[in-house]
Amino acid sequence: MAASSENSGNQASTQDQMVAGSAWMTAGSILSRILGAVYIIPWNIWFGAFYLQGNALYGKGYNIYSFFLIAAIAGVPSAIAKQVAHYNALNEYGISVRLYKRGLEIAILTGVVIASLMYFGAPLFTGGDQNLVPVLHSLAWAILIIPTMSLTRGYFQGFQQMAPSAISQFVEQLVRVIYMLGAAFIIMRVLKGNWITAVSQSTFAAAVGAFGGLSILGVYYWRRRHEFRSLVANSNNEMVVPAKQLYQEIIAQAVPFIVLGAGITIFQLIDQYTFAPIMHLAGTYTAAHLNDLFALFGVNANKLIMITISLSSALAVTVVPLLSQSYTQGNKKDISAQLTNAFMMFEFVMIPSALGMAAIARPLNLVFYGTTHEALAASLLAFSSYLSILLGLYTVVAALMQGISQNKRAVRYFLVGTIVKFIVQWPLVYFFGAFGPLIATGCGFLVACYLIVHWLNNQFGINYASIAKKTNGILLSALGTFALARGVALLGGLLGSQGRVINFLIVAVAAVIGGYFYVYSVLKSRLADAILGSRVAGLRRRLHIR
């Protein structure tokens, strides 16, 4: 009986850790993504007639940069978080500190090498668009800083300290946005300069923001140095791990993270390099028109859906060290419970967010991107919103596999999904145009997610009965949210206005009404309690819901 009570207490503690960690990471990620989307409005206005071309150039540069950045980081932050949690569970905090220092050496070295490769090899990665060269040069500087920053975030996460990561993430984005908007305004409006120069300075803002984020982490580390020293002093100190083994552990854990962490980026690069050639076969299009189309589905819509995908990304980052701890302890029952909790928390936030964004796609697109290709842009955003559920699911299941040391298997499943993407890409783009890459991406990730979830269920058992019951409640509430938000958007559309202010008000009203309905329904039905724990009872009392 005592053992049962202890296990119950441990599960509750684990769930509390997951919820608390997810809250911090979700808040940091969401605020960062919102900042990363809000800047679009003034940025587009200042670019004027060049904004779609500028957005396409910006997006192409960032896709290439994202891949190089993931190669530079090499999965080390997530690997460090996983391994630090592993040694902390064994009360070997001294090894965790040594692991961080060795990881720091790797991060600095890979940052210098990859940044140099991107800077000096820029002409090789342009796909024929020479305007990309200065953009890639400006982005290379960020790769010198971000690996060290990301590694330090992973170290904090390994100690289940999510606040430093979340706050540094927000500060990084805030500094980046301030710099890029200031640079764009001065170049385009004050100096009446070249739009390519303005894009290059906007991308250089990544390095400026990274410096700000790293500074915040340095402050947190300094403040908590005594806490870390105390943990090291009270370690078991029974294990001796040579430096060579620490390097091997980091690299062995990190390399698969490159492929898995770059999953969405790899699919976007496939679109970037294949969309225009396939479309030229399908019909006669100018390069400028195809750039516009790429901006609509590959950049504009993607920036907005990444706000909702960041919800699941936050969950993924939180669950890796927790799963690693349970896996180290050989607690299969706890692993099963954590898998089930992770899926439920993913559905709880992702489904209503994605459906809500799809419901207000038209006014939301008008707020951020104006009236250019209005109907097509709204349709692509709505479709991308539905697709974001699948992209978010991939982010979560890939992290789950990493948490239980199944990196190689996860990479194999992702490669199968990538092959599917390649197979269907040509016919889908040829016949469906700008929707084709999105459909092909959905097919690829659907296969990868199915293979991973199927394997997890076979090995650890996923409580599908519990998930199905709660999923029905989530879907019912989310569909109600969709209907209300869609109704507000349709009523607002009767005004016939294409102005940003009116459509912002429509979006705000729809978000408030739809969001309140979802919160009210999940609190009223006690669904939130079942997924997030008893702590939500306080929110129910404050909202006077019985």
Automatic annotation (TrEMBL):
Query: Native species of this protein?
Result: Levilactobacillus tongjiangensis
Q: Which UniProt keywords apply?
A: Cell membrane, Membrane, Transmembrane, Transmembrane helix
**Xref: CDD domains:** MATE_SpoVB_like
Annotated protein name in UniProt:
Polysaccharide biosynthesis C-terminal domain-containing protein
List the subcellular locations: Cell membrane
Any stretches that span the bilayer, and where are they? 34-52, 64-85, 106-126, 132-152, 173-191, 203-222, 250-270, 304-323, 343-364, 376-398, 410-428, 434-453, 474-495, 501-519
**Topological type in the membrane:** Multi-pass membrane protein
Q: Which Pfam families match?
A: Polysacc_synt
